[in-house]
Specification:
The chain is of the alpha/beta class. The protein has 3 domains: 142 residues, 2-Layer Sandwich (Nucleotidyltransferase, domain 5), CATH 3.30.420; 190 residues, Nucleotidyltransferase, domain 5; 196 residues, Alpha-Beta Complex (DHBP synthase), CATH 3.90.870. The protein is globular and about 70 Å long.
Length: 586
């Protein structure tokens, strides 16, 4: 009998460090390090995630055949040398950063052995570096059910490129073109976010949520910040940026918290006035800047995609990368481009490069062929009801009781219908940044005060950020103007006017929703809960937000119980156990 082939994928020394383990091409486990060590967007080495993936597989690191690292220092070497030659006076800091990063990557074998408590000589795996954007491309296309697809990978930077367009056919990816450093739509978005006062790593999603409150009255400035070029290219107005002279400096502190140095130059301040400092009031001009930024990003995004369609000619597109997480732009894709089918990866950000690196090595480097399409984002670890019961007892949660599946769905639906806030912890943890009904807080989407209730009692976040609707997949067209599935919460669609009364807590100010479509095949427990809620209320939608309070999404039963206990959540449904803070009166 042939031994299974194990490929371990790693994203390390960049934000969203993560590990993914494949067995004969199928995902055994995929986990971001932040979920275990509780450092949001952790940017070091994913030692705990690696160990947990191996534990789930029931193997040790000596059994791993190949290790795929989501970067390749030799990629795009000619472009790097050409840039260095043109920018000799400014190359010192850039070179220093790259040498430091390469030194860390060279130590991967030692770090892997140390993380797993073995001697270096006992790790027999072959190591592979895979170009950053090939990782993103593989994560989206090879995991899709498309035999052929256009592919777009687009983000800040990785291996000296910000954008890659490609053509995927069966088990091949043909790179068609790249946009190289220093030009980047990810840098554009992050720089303006910093100017608006949202400079923490990952704040771009907040600015996307702020944009609908503004008007696009700064488009002239935005068009100076970035210009279209022929053949789907674009070019930053570099006078407004400093990353090409002072370095991008995606560094991290001793705890692994990622930081980003200032990206915009004095020229932007001279053009627009003083930048907003963190904690200062959000004024209308900041909302207008956010709206203008989003509008300009969309113009360039569709510029790239239309050219990609022209080159490839098929109606399917696979998208990954941090800019590909812009769900507002993704929701307009069918209206603004000729594409008619879309595949996204649940971990579109750099945690997904761990998955893509492993999948690329399995499929292309080793010639093992594409595995079956990835049907679910529930790729993390899970806990038994006995483990959950033990955690409840240890935490002293009195009155917790174990119920059957049918009772669980009916009971939870009644609590949500009554306006209570429910912590919902079920099965395997989600892979990627979105809570998709495995580690979620759920509430009534039609409750007029629910957004304020959640923000004041649990989430404690900015007032303008919307909550997401999870809807039965087959009912999508009844409530939204598009019907293409959005299982990873990666598209924003317009809400139908006649259904907005059912969606007041999840209908954004511009009458849109960043929806998750839920299918019975891919998310059976979550689907059954929403079905039960529909029987109670006539609404096939629940409000879904991540199970956390200003921290990474909960990972273990103990963390879920702690979040439930310290916040004003009403009910905890964890596995088949139910805990309530007050007797329920129907």
């Amino acid at each position: 009998m042939t031994e299974p082939l194990y490929v371990l994928g790693i994203n390390a020394f960049h934000a969203d460090a993560a590990a993914v383990l494949l067995r004969d091409g199928e995902v055994v486990c995929a986990i971001a390090e932040e979920r275990i060590n509780r450092v949001k967007h952790f940017a070091g080495f994913p030692a705990l995630a690696i160990r947990r993936c191996l534990e789930v597989a029931g193997i040790d690191v000596t059994r791993v055949d190949h290790v795929a690292v989501g970067r390749d220092g030799t990629a795009n070497l000619m472009q790097k040398l050409a840039f260095a030659a043109r920018n000799l006076p400014n190359i010192g800091q850039l070179a220093k950063q790259r040498l430091e990063n390469r030194a860390k990557v060279r130590d991967t074998l030692a770090l892997l052995a140390d993380a797993c408590g073995v001697e270096r000589s006992s790790v027999r795996a072959t190591f592979h570096g895979v170009e950053h954007h090939l990782c993103h491309a593989a994560s989206a296309f090879f995991a899709s059910d498309f035999d052929e697809s256009a592919i777009l990978s687009i983000d800040g930077f990785g291996d000296f490129a910000s954008t890659m367009i490609a053509h995927g056919q069966k088990d091949r990816i043909e790179v068609l073109d790249r946009v190289f450093f220093p030009h980047s739509l990810g840098i554009l978005y992050s720089a303006v976010c910093q100017y608006i006062g949202y400079g923490s790593y990952g704040d771009e999603g907040k600015v996307m949520g702020l944009a609908p409150y503004g008007e696009p009255r700064f488009m002239e400035v935005m068009r100076d910040l970035v210009r279209e070029k022929e053949r789907g290219k674009f070019e930053l107005g570099l006078d407004y940026f400093v990353h090409h002279t002072e370095g991008v400096d995606y560094s991290f502190d001793e705890q692994g918290n990622p930081t980003v140095a200032p990206l915009f130059s004095r020229a932007l301040v001279e053009r627009l006035g003083p930048a907003r400092k963190k904690g200062e009031p959000v004024e209308q001009r900041h909302m207008d800047l956010a709206r203008s930024l989003q509008a300009r990003l969309e113009e360039l995004y569709f510029h790239v995609l239309r050219d990609l369609h022209h080159r490839v000619g098929c109606d399917a597109v696979s998208i990954a990368g941090g800019v590909g997480l812009n769900s507002v732009a993704n929701g307009k894709l069918f209206a603004q481009t000729p594409f008619r089918r879309l595949a996204t990866h649940p971990a579109s950000t750099d945690d997904g490069t761990a998955y893509g690196a492993a999948l690329y090595v399995h499929t292309v480097t080793l010639g093992q062929g594409r595995p079956a399409p990835l049907r679910t984002a529930y790729l993390g670890d899970s806990y038994t009801d006995d483990e959950i019961g033990a955690a409840l007892a240890k935490a002293g949660i009195d009155g917790a009781r174990r119920v059957s599946d049918d009772e669980l769905y009916a009971l939870t639906a009644k609590r949500i219908a009554a306006g209570l806030v429910v912590g919902w912890f079920q099965g395997r943890m989600e892979w990627g940044p979105r809570a998709l009904g495995a580690r979620s807080i759920l509430a009534h989407p039609g409750h007029p005060d629910m957004k304020d209730i959640l923000n004041s009692r649990i989430k404690h976040r900015e007032w303008f950020r919307p909550f997401a609707p999870s809807i039965l997949e087959e009912r999508t067209g009844d409530y939204f103007t598009e019907t293409w599935p959005s299982p990873h919460m990666m598209q924003v669609y317009d809400t139908r006017p006649e259904k907005r009364a059912h969606l007041v807590a999840v209908d954004h100010v511009d009458h849109t929703g960043r929806l998750q479509t839920v299918s019975e095949r891919d998310a059976p427990r979550y689907y059954q809960l929403i079905r039960a809620f529909e029987r109670e209320t006539g609404i096939p939608v629940v409000l879904n937000t991540s199970f956390n309070e200003n921290e990474p999404i909960v990972h273990t039963p103990a963390q879920a119980i702690d979040c439930y206990a310290r916040t004003r959540m009403d009910v905890l449904v964890i596995g088949n156990w139910v805990a309530e803070k007050a007797p329920f009166v129907s």
